[in-house]
Amino acid sequence: MSSSSPVYGLILAGGSSRRMNRDKATLEYQGKTQLDRAFELASRHVTQVFVSVRADQTLDPTRAQRPMIVDSVGGEGPIAGIRSALAAHPKAAWLVLACDLPYLSDAALDYLLRRRDAAAFATAYTSAHDGLPEPLCAIWEPSAAEALADYQAGGGHCPRKFLIRHGARLLEPQDTRALENVNTPEEYRQAIATLDQAPMQLKIQYYALMREQAGRSEETLETSASTPAGLYQELAARYGFTLSRDQLKVAVNSEFSDWSRKLNVGDAVVFIPPVAGG
Amino acid sequence: MHFRFTESAIDTESARRELQTSSAGGYVSFEGWVRDLNEGQEVTRLEYEAFQELAVKEGDRIVAEALRRFPVKHALCIHRVGSLKIRDMAVWVGVSSVHRGEAFDACRFIIDEVKHRVPIWKKEHYRSGDSGWVNCERCAAAPQHSHAEPEHAEHHHERVAVLNPK
Asked: Which one of A7, A87, A114, B166 has the largest count of C-beta atoms within 10 Å of its C-beta?
């Protein structure tokens, strides 16, 4: 058992950011590059953090200010970064973070680290979109090194498929937005707008039983909840709503919505208790 | 627009005229009425409330679906909101068509879907002085009933009219 092995942080910053047309590590949010934000975030949770880079990135000014682990095994790509870190410190487990997760929070890392399963190859969140493991916001254990080498030797290159095939301790994200990644210029603009204005202002309208329990028919409030699910949790605690979330539907801007949809500033939210027309 | 709300009594005569067309051989309508008894409790009045902006969209979608699924001529649903007395009409559905069979089917489809999907709520006031939101309070311990009103909780008698059936 490697439950006593330390956890180090690894920020993957070797990607080519093709869809963004810009190096994702250098994108700035609230005046700070994403690489620095991820590095500082990880540093609040583990004792040592490194930046994973390709051999040709060691002089890059964004990366060079930080301790680096240069790809040494496994060619290029995320598996090379993870394998190179496992090779550099064979007794450590690695909190591996992609460099395109601007919404990632202390709460999300804390939750992941607290539920680490050192007996698995990895402890990972599942994606809110497809339920599959998220390999790049995960803790990789020393025991994964050999299996990753075998996987690459067999022609594999996708860390997600590796986790699907070899198994991992999987966790449902508490805040699905924390794992939203930013791949396109449009997503980048949205992320800037959201992060700059957090907490955001929303308009809530209440009907029927919920109106009576909230004691109002509408309100504008500031919240750090990023989804209708999070917002309902917050408001249910405030007003003591008796209906559980699975009895409700939710509408955003006068249309039915998923509970995991990202809320934006100014959205109008309505929780819909069981209907009884006719 | 195939779905609308009214705060006053539903004018079925003028609603029916909206469905008339020379090619229709008949029309089927459904009226939902406020009944004086529900689940053993004597009901004195009902209050209907709707999230109208979304309800009109969803109601329109339901009627449009009915027009796609069944070969009928016209269809319309009108729902009342506000405080209603026993015997008042809460909802009206009308469908005109060449033949009666599809008119019955479309009418049934519309009222069933409206009851399950459109964000409308009703609060019952009982002779005992109590009151409660239907489907929200007594069923709070049975989440499988959410958004699916059990048959026994229906509040109206049914009246179906067929004129000039072919």
From this structure: A7
- Which whole number is the average pLDDT over A251-278? 93
Measured between CB atoms, which of A244, A248, A276 is closest to B122?
A276
Q: Give how far Cα A113 sits from Cα of A125, A176, A180, B23, B118, Å.
A: 11, 17, 19, 71, 44
A278 in a structural domain: no
With respect to residue B88, please indicate whether it lies within any of the assigned structural domains.
Answer: yes
- Residues of B in CB contact (< 8 Å) with A are 32, 48-51, 53-54, 57-58, 79, 90-91, 111, 114-123, 133-137, 139-140, 143, 145-147, 149, 153-156
**Residue A218 and residue A85 share a domain:** no
| Cβ–Cβ < 8 Å for B49, B81 | yes
A22 pLDDT band, cuts 50/70/90, is confident
Residue A154 and residue A238 share a domain: no
A 10 A CB-CB count for A114 gives 9
Task: Provide the CATH number for the domain around residue B13.
Answer: 3.90.1170.40
Contact B19, B103 (CB under 8 A): no
- Here the tokens at position A264 are 């934006």
Reported as a single tens digit per residue, the pLDDT across B94-115 is 999 999 999 999 999 999 999 9
Question: How many separate domains does chain B show?
Answer: 1
Residue A250 lies in a domain: yes
Q: Give residue-wise pLDDT tens across range A90-119.
A: 999 999 999 989 999 888 999 999 999 999
Do A211 and A137 form a contact (C-beta atoms < 8 A)? no
Query: Could you tell me if residue B130 is inside a domain?
Result: no
**Where in the sequence is the domain holding B84, given as residue range(s)?**
3-35+50-119+152-163
A91 and A223 housed in the same domain? no
Q: Which two tokens stand for residue A57?
A: 């990135």
Per residue in A1-12, pLDDT (tens digit) is 445 689 999 999
Contact B10, B33 (CB under 8 A): no
Which residue segment(s) compose the domain that A144 sits in? 7-190
Q: What is the ipTM of this complex?
A: 0.83
